[in-house]
Structures are given as C-alpha cells and as structure tokens.
Amino acid sequence: MRTGIRAAIAALAATAAVITAGCTSSDQAGPASSQNSVLSKVLTTKKLTVGVFADAPPYGVMNSSGEYEGFDIDKARALAESLGAEVEFVSTTNASRIPMLETAKADVVIAALTNLDERAQVVALTRPYASEGQLVVVPADSPIRSYDDLAGRTVAATRGSVPATILEAEFPQAKPSLFEAVADSIQALRSGKVDALMESTAVVADIRASEGDAVRVLDAPALAPSLVSFGVKMGDQLWLNYLNNFIMNYNISKAANDSYNRWLGMDVPDLIK
C-alpha cells in the first residue's frame, strides 16, 4: 500500500515538474519574442527604415534636391517621429514591395499598398491609412470614351500593381503594357506609345495637375475601390499592433488632414477614421 502511495506521489511530482517547466518556458518566450520585434529594434537603434516610392507622385517622389516628398512620405516621417527615431528611406517599386519585406530590407513599406486578400497571405497589412480607386487617363483628343472602348487598345500600368491585375482579369481584350515605374507609364502616354493609362485616383490627380488639358479622365465610376495599408513582414504582432495604433491616432489628427488636402485635395475620408 505504502509502495503504491509513494508511486502516486512520485507521479504527481513529475507531472508538477513538467507543468512548471512548461510555464517557465512560456514566460521566457514572451520577453524573447518582444526583444526580437522590429518595434524593439527601432526603439533601441533610433532608426526606422521605410520602403517608399521615389517616382510615383503624389505618394512618393525624390525631388531635385534629392529629398523624398509626398503623401506616403508624410506618413513615414510622422511614424518615425512617434518612435523618436530617424527615418531612412529605401526606394521601392510596385513589384519589389513585398520582396523587400520578405528579405527584411525595410522595417515597413509605405508605398500605396492596396490590402488585397492575396497580399495578406504573404505579408501583414495594417489598418488602412488611405482609400482609393483606379481610373483611366487618355489623351485629350482620344476617341476612347468608355471602358468598352479599351478593347484592342494598349493600356499602360505598372508591373505588380492593382491596375495590372484589373487589366488581366476584367479587360481581356485590351493590350496591357506594363512598366516598372509610374513615371514610365506616364511618359509612354505622353509620347503616344500607349493609348491609355490606368492608375489610382491619387496618381491620376497628379497626372491631371502636371499634364493639364493634354489629358482627360474617362467619365466612368472608379474601378476596384480599395483601402491602402502599411505592409510589414509576417509574424511580428507587436510591431503590427504599434503601427495600427499609430494609424488610428494619426488619421484623426490635423497633420493627417493637412497631408490629405495637400497631396490628394480632400479631407481624410470618414471610412478610415
């Protein structure tokens, strides 16, 4: 009988040891995970690396002085300020945004990243900081008057962008002409190498401002109305939580409204507040 009791006590002790070890391991995993977060790194090094466009107005451009400016640049600078860090910009393109995150070449990408479901399968996307749609721009004297008229026409878009996806899925009769940068698409339209250009509402607003009466926008509803988010590498919930909190506070601020009006000509939409 005593032997049985001793065996039972030994078994209970062994079970307790396993449970205790499990708790200790879990407790240690939490702080370690925190220390490995981009948030901890940025707070320690006081340096934030942000992937941005350098040639996609009004989101991001490099001006004649070699400095970045634009709608997304405002967001990046405000984020760095909130962290007490200096910001370092790394130029990206539509096609290189996700690889840049996957290879940790940027702590965050702020480059008009539409939060598509397929993107959310490979990178983590924040709550939206902007909303937009896609429009078609043509030369002022173009016979193209509707989306149906794009059949058989050459339409410029940037590689890896939402317009490129739309052209493939919804305009199979059109002839996509894909470029690496928005500036190349605009130049192709300007020089007559393409019949039309499909871009976001924000980029189209800038094209209209720069090209004036030389172009016009098709009088049709915006395609693929969407939301735009920051992108970060998968698996860092602490960093994602911080960014979501930052965007929530930023979008209701005067700074956000001023930026929206400066670059997009409108107040921050209620949809993203």
From TrEMBL:
One of its GO terms (biological process) is amino acid transport. Coiled coil: none annotated. Pfam families: SBP_bac_3 (PF00497). Keywords: Signal, Transport. Residues 1-29 form the signal peptide. One of its GO terms (cellular component) is outer membrane-bounded periplasmic space. Residues 47-267 form the Solute-binding protein family 3/N-terminal domain. The keyword Signal applies. Belongs to the bacterial solute-binding protein 3 family. This is ABC transporter substrate-binding protein. It comes from Mycolicibacterium wolinskyi.
